[in-house]
Amino acid sequence: MKNAIAASLLASLGLSAGLCQEVVTWNADSPWADQADPLFQNEFTSGATPWINALEHGSVVHLLFGFPSQIQRYDMQAQAWLSTISLPSTPTAMAIDDDGIYVAFSADIWSYSLDGSGGSLLYTAPAALESLLVDGGLLFAGYDDKLISIDKTTGALLDSEDYFYGMIGLSISAPSSKIYARSTGISPSDILEIQYMSDGTLGTQEDSPYHGDYPTGDRTWVHPLTNNVSDNTGLVYTSVLNYGGSLAGPFTDLAVDGDGFVVLRGNTLFAHGSDFLETGRATTAPGLLSIFVHDGFVYGFSTDTNGAAVTTLATSSLVPLNPGPPTNPLGLPFTPDQVIMGDEGTLYLLSISDKSVFRWSKGQLGYLPTIPLAEEPDFLTYSAPNNAIYLAYESGRITVVDASELSDLSETSFVNSPQTPCGLSMAGEWLFVCDPSGAWVSHFTYSPNGELVSQKEWNYYSEEYVWSATNGRMYHLRDQTSPNDLLWEQIDEFGVLGADLDSPLHSSLGMTHPIRLPTSGQIVILGSGRFHDAITLDLLNELGVAYVDAAFVSGQLVTLHQVGNDSELRYWNDFLTEVVDTVSLPGEPLAVRENQSDLIVVTSPAGTPQFSVIEGSHPIFEDGFESGDTTAW
């Protein structure tokens, strides 16, 4: 089947036995040097490429074609195509090492010299082979759920095993003596490992402890320095298949670059360091299908009507995204997607469409310099202990901006969530992330240096997650579950997720955002006006009116409402039974935030945010407008 696909694709491109090989070089003055790491090998499915295998040995890339049956070779050191190796029949798999090239023709395995000469039959398997891997004197061949090991010199069968799971996308780690694969033919799919001995004895097939918690891939790669294994979902696992990190989204191909990686997504190359964080990116030629890195250059292979083509790009061209000049928010019509109270009276306003974090200062009564963003984020949060803001993106990339670095408020990579984050908050110094991995969704916590601290599945999505430092709990709803409900989840002083509790009501009635708590942590009040005991989550009472937003200033509840086309603040008595004061402000209500003993109110009189600072918890009225203690824009 794979050969038919390869043949069909090549035929559709008009390729024939007389392939014309084109080289497209973006850096003609590039220096060329010596061999790449020979330990890195990868066998993969051919569904996305017209070739069956694309393997590197030394500085030479080998492309195995089913039709015409041949191996195209490109020497990255010499920047030149080598002579094509013609094959006698349709191949199905290939492996390469210092001693030669091993090619499977259905069930037959043949060995060749590195120049393609001297072909001889090495072994005949019971069925058509789909993968070949080599380590020292051992050659491994696989098909479906079968794996065999043979002596690559004599062709003697060393071991043969039938496993429970079918396997695709095999790769090998010589230092760990392990073969990795993705399971196939069963749901949910998982990543697998098989330990083998130096005599070729095959061990048991082991799967990860996650059993479908993460997306399904069909290719694997082993990093030759760390022996971590990645699949094309973008996830990285340790050598014992524990979750090890993320490369921020699925990709087409991966190449090792020293202790880091380069991955291909569409027509963009992404560079990642050894910590898996993005260090740069660059747009490349369209149509690339396989990539390799050699001596400071990325080589991308594609096909066109003229035959096989290679494009080179210096790895130094993969640079961090440039957000461009900052947008001036003064007079700019926008509605903030999030409004976060920062430190020292600074309000952070996220405008996704403007790719900006606008900052408004209570001290200066005006905007501070904008934090420009290179992409549109999904979420923003702020940590007072870290004096930093964090932004989450669809790819799973989470960045940080050090708010104390007034001269450089640029984003830097912080951590990659396994999948697209569905929520972002802070539990003091610990970053809290909702991610769709696992059963239902999972909640994650990360340390200030980006290390994964805790992970807990069977959890809930909420439009917001609100932290109470006093109670050591994260409060949220379960917005995609019926009935909706109010919950909390404990996070201890070490950032570890703990016990959780939902309210005893188990009813969607009144379960609406926003969620607000006083500093004392005694109650939690919802947008419906209902308030609950913050520990037991029992319903205590209700205001009798819903609100747009709310804050507690000096312990007093102040709610923000829309009245006609304008806004109204309502100050409540200690028993939350009646309104004792009101303040009217022009424009639709957007947000109210407490800062020390003051309130900052954001309204929108004409589609542009307007800020009002109200000093003290009891405003003084004068002709229906705020007093001289209030400054409005």
Key features?
single chain; 633 residues; mainly beta; Methylamine Dehydrogenase, Chain H; 5-stranded antiparallel β-sheet; 4-stranded mixed β-sheet; 48% strand
How would you describe the overall organization of this protein?
This protein has 633 residues and is mostly beta strands. Among the domains are: 2-15 and 38-258, Methylamine Dehydrogenase, Chain H, CATH 2.130.10; 327-459, 7 Propeller (Methylamine Dehydrogenase, Chain H), CATH 2.130.10. Helix content is 2%, strand content 48%. It is built from one helix and 58 strands. The strands form 15 sheets. Strands 2, 3, 4, 5 and 6 form a five-stranded antiparallel sheet that branches. A four-stranded mixed sheet has the order 1-29-28-27, with no helix packed on it. A hairpin with a 4-residue loop joins strand 34 and strand 35. The longest helix has 11 residues, at 2-12. The radius of gyration is 30 Å and the shape is elongated. It starts with a helix and ends with a strand. 45% of the residues are buried. Residues 1-47 and 619-633 have low confidence and may be disordered.
**CATH class value of the domain at 2-15 and 38-258:** Mainly Beta
Examine the coordinates and then state which fold CATH places here, giving the name of the CATH topology of the domain at 2-15 and 38-258.
Methylamine Dehydrogenase, Chain H
Helix coverage percent: under 10%
Over all CA atoms, what is the radius of gyration? 30 Å
Give average pLDDT, whole number: 88
- Count of β-strands: 58
Percent of sequence in beta strands: over 45%
First and last CA, distance: 69 Å
CATH architecture of the domain at 2-15 and 38-258: 7 Propeller
Overall shape: elongated
CATH superfamily of the domain at 2-15 and 38-258: YVTN repeat-like/Quinoprotein amine dehydrogenase
Count of alpha and pi helical runs: 1
The largest pleated sheet is described as: 5 strands, antiparallel
Q: Helix- and strand-based class?
A: mainly beta
User: What are the segments in which pLDDT stays under 50 over at least 5 consecutive residues?
Assistant: 1-47, 619-633
